[in-house]
C-alpha cells in the first residue's frame, strides 16, 4: 500500500512539473506597460529585463533599457530587434496584430489583463508573480500593500469638493477626465467629486463648460503641466479663471504613472495625495510640492 501511494505521489509530481512553465535564469524579457514594469522591479525581477516600452519610466533604472516604442503602437520588428525570449505585457499593449506576429516568431507573450481599479492591484501582482515563477515574492508584496489598501478604504469622509483632472501631452489639446477613467478612480478614492463625471472618457472642454461645472481644485501631471507651458499657461486656459480653482489657484501636481497606473506604488501615492489635498485646503503652500515615494532597493 505504501509503495502504491509512493508511486502515485511521484507520478503526480512529475505530471505537475511537466505542466509548469520552465524559466531559465538567462531568459531575455521585454516588459510592455509601466505598471507591469514597476511590478517586476518590486518583485526583484529587474535583472531579467532587456527592453521596455515608452510608458515604463519607473524606477529610473528601467529607463536605461532600450525602448521598443509606444505601448499601443508597437511594431514586431522593434521588439524582435532585442531578441527577447519572453514578453510580459499589460492589456493595453498593441496592436493585437503585433502581438500575434511576435508569438508567430516564437516569442512567448504573456498579457496581464487588469482594470484601472484600486481593488485590481493585488490580483495584478499575483498574476505577474506567477508568470515570473515568483509566487512567494508576490505574496509578500501583496501583504505589504494590505495596510495601505485598508487605510484607503477607511479614509474619513470629507466635505464635497469638485475637482478636475487635465490630461495633457506635447502636441495635443488638453483634455479633462470624465467617468470610466483611471483619473475618476483616483479622485473618488481620495474623496474628491469629479466635476465632469457626467462625461465619458477624456474630452476637451470649452470655457462655458468649465464655468458651468466650477471645479474647485485642478490636478495635472508634472509632464502635462510642462507640456502646457507651465502653471501660468494652465491658468490661462479659457474659462478656468471663472472657476473657484482658477480664482484661488488650487493646484495639485501629481505623478500620473504612479497614481493612474495602478501598480505597487499607487496605494501609497493615493494616501500621500489625500494628505496633500488636506494640506492644500488649509492653505499651506508646501502642499503644491510634489513628493516621491522612495524606489525599491
From TrEMBL:
Gene3D superfamilies: Nitrogenase molybdenum iron protein domain (3.40.50.1980). It comes from the Bacteria. The keyword Signal applies. It comes from Halomonas eurihalina. It holds the Pfam family Peripla_BP_2. Residues 1-24 form the signal peptide. Residues 28-285 form the Fe/B12 periplasmic-binding domain. PANTHER family: HEMIN-BINDING PERIPLASMIC PROTEIN HMUT (PTHR30535:SF4), VITAMIN B12-BINDING PROTEIN (PTHR30535). Keywords: Signal. This is Hemin ABC transporter substrate-binding protein. The keyword Signal applies. CDD domains: HutB.
